[in-house]
Amino acid sequence: MSHRLLCARGTRAVFTVAIAAALVAGCDGLDPGGSSVGSEPDAAAGRAASPLTNPDGTKPGLAALTSEADKAGARKLIEELATKGRGPKTGYDRDEFGYAWMDTADGVPLARNGCDTRNDLLKLHGRKIQFRAGSDCVVVSMNLYDPYTGKDIAWKKAKAAEVQIDHVVPLSYSWQMGAARWPESKRKQLANDALNLLPVEGRANSAKRDSGPAAWLPPNKKIRCSYAVRFAQVADKYELPVTTADKAMMLEQCEG
Q1: Of 21, 65, 143, 178, which residue is 20 to 30 A from 98 by alpha carbon distance?
Q2: What number of other Cβ atoms are within 10 A of residue 91's Cβ?
């Protein structure tokens, strides 16, 4: 039986685990989550950190949480979040959080390094980085493993919108949950904090809009507990409550 036929049939259980693994590695499109070839090895090679071991967001990626111990730790973090109803959006404007991708938001990682927040995040999470000629800041191409979709993205600046920087806790959400009463300096921190930022597929980010976890979760189901943890870490750091529905959904994603 040909290798191609085995790939098409997804490898049958009659083959040994070792042979099946080798065949799957050579088959295109077998990942039911839609990952392109190479995405899982990149994560396994240390390009995706567990949120539980990355409390400041300065390690690349967002690895899945699979062990019972990790899920128990995740639930404990989420359970400690305060809850309240989502307030009105009255007065919200992106500029209330400072101009986009400023390098001068004090009190957060990567600030005041001479490179704007967006490019800092592309450098942190991307691989095979290429910079604009004469620059060590402006990223013009890279490969990105997107945890939200489970896909590898070959990105070029000419099509910049294909990768967008997601605010895990959306700025509008934070405004409605209390940030409207914060000093501007704290809002600037939230908008530029690496803990609250992930480069992801543009379409996924656009679909999320300003939703909390009860209304939107990453399409990649494997990463949903990790996403809930990151959302909780940001809420905890900035003393933001979440809605009751959001908290319940976050806990559900990290059930054993």
Answers
A1: 143
A2: 8
Is the Cβ–Cβ distance between 143 and 162 less than 8 Å? no
Contact call for residues 34 and 204 (beta carbons, < 8 A)? no
Which tokens belong to 49?
A: 């950190």
Please say whether the beta carbons of 114 and 96 come within 8 A.
no
Strand ranges (DSSP E) for 49-168? 127-131, 139-146, 151-156, 163-167
Confidence tier at 43 by pLDDT (50, 70, 90): very low
Confidence class for position 10, pLDDT limits 50, 70, 90: very low
Contact 83, 241 (CB under 8 A): yes
Instruction: Judge contact between 200 and 126, C-beta under 8 A.
Output: no
On average, the pLDDT of the chain sits at 87
Q: What does the pLDDT look like over 93-150, one tens digit per residue? A: 999 999 999 999 999 999 999 999 999 999 999 999 999 999 999 999 999 999 999 9
CB atoms within 10 A of CB 30: 15
- Flag whether pLDDT at 63 surpasses 60: yes
Cα 185–Cα 188–Cα 196 angle in degrees, nearest 5: 130
- How far is the first Cα of the chain from the last one, in angstroms, to the nearest whole number? 40
